[in-house]
Specification:
Layout (H helix, E strand, L loop, with lengths): L5 H12 L3 H20 L4 E3 L3 E8 L2 E4 L6 E4 L2 E8 L1 H18 L1
Antiparallel strand pairs: 1-2, 2-5, 3-4
């Protein structure tokens, strides 16, 4: 399993786009800052062919402490949601099918 990191993304920008490492780092940080500020403003971020990030409101509800079984009120909150595009879903499914075919 491979973890995708900021450093890894910067390296990909550097090697594939031809920007310097420092320019790649600045570009990535600016993109991430724009995504974050857009979500903080309550708007969705749609990346064509990848998916949509959005902020959803979750209402107040009753939960249960798993250790004690005691009921507690869970306060309303905002949560970040991601909905993958159909193109991403298809790509992941095809990749998983190829991977399982190689193993089996």
């Amino acid at each position: 399993m491979q973890t995708l990191t900021r450093a890894g993304l910067i390296e990909k920008l550097y090697s594939h786009v031809g920007l310097s490492r420092s320019e790649s780092a600045v570009l990535l940080e600016e993109v991430l800052e724009k995504v974050i500020s857009t979500l903080e403003g309550g708007d969705s971020v749609k990346i064509s062919g990848f998916g949509t990030f959005s902020v959803r409101r979750k209402g107040s509800r009753i939960g249960r402490n798993p250790k004690t079984g005691e009921e507690v009120v869970i306060e309303p909150r905002l949560v970040l949601a991601f909905r993958p595009s159909q193109m991403l879903k298809n790509s992941v499914n095809e990749g998983m099918m190829k991977l399982s075919a190689r193993k089996g």
